[in-house]
Amino acid sequence: MNFILFVLIIAPVGVILFGWFRKNNSKWVVPKEPFPKEWKLILIKEVTFYNSLSNEEKKRFEYKVQEFLLNCRITPIKTNIDATDKILVAASAVIPIFGFNDWKYISLYEVLIYPSMFNENFELEGSDRRILGMVGNGPMEGIMILSKQALKHGFQNESDKKNTAIHEFVHLIDKTGGPIDGIPSVLMEKQYAIPWIDLINKKVEEIYNKESDINPYGGTNSAEFFSVASEYFFERPKLLERKHPELYKHLESVFKQDMSSRNLTKNKATIGRNSPCPCNSGLKFKKCCGLK
């Protein structure tokens, strides 16, 4: 079947049926099984944000990851995915809403994983393939598309102030309160909206004047600025607080997370065969989760 036809017709139909089934035949699914040990190892190895959390916070993060994967399908398109890819998608969803205990992505039913960049016609070959991710609208409502290449890069390089998956989930959060306009009304109290808009205008002007270290793509519009600034906030919070204190303060208020207090400078944890097993069993890794 033609790939574009599949994306535009078959995939949305699947999403509609999945959403209908969930709405009419079951409630929001919550985790009932223990968090899989192999998933915990992936988080330890791949997600610096997770490693910066306290033990209690890690358990809550694990719960949210598991909950997300129970309620949102991750579907590969012309590529293969594994447990690590799924965990990275879920971690990208959880990081920006970690400050909100009851947040649920109730409008998102499926994340499509493309192998690389694509164009506006969802084509993976040819020219104008510049898109790394998008939140669907119209017939694609309820779907997010992410480039597998960009998804992995976002966690492999956590110092470049870029994470495509987090960027797209911030767009989805923005969209929850209405149009994607850079004003996250579901998170932002009304009295802060005007100062936020004024700050965006100021920061976008700095980008235009080449007086800013914020990704120039943030100068596209207010929605893109919000997502770009959020990437910066979650990847390099201490640098953001130093160079853009007012922006940091606003984002801290929006996401209810003091990111600058987290230790994100450590390398992702390495697990040797004789290391204590990260599942807290009290055994060495080789005697527990490291068993083949």
UniProtKB/TrEMBL annotation:
Pfam short name (any one): Peptidase_M90
Keyword annotations: Membrane, Transmembrane, Transmembrane helix
SUPFAM superfamilies hit by this protein: Metalloproteases ('zincins'), catalytic domain, Sec-C motif
Keyword Membrane carried by entry: yes
Keyword Cytoplasm included in the entry's annotation: no
Gene3D superfamilies, per the entry: Collagenase (Catalytic Domain), Glucose-regulated metallo-peptidase M90, N-terminal domain
Protein name (Swiss-Prot/TrEMBL): Zinc-dependent peptidase
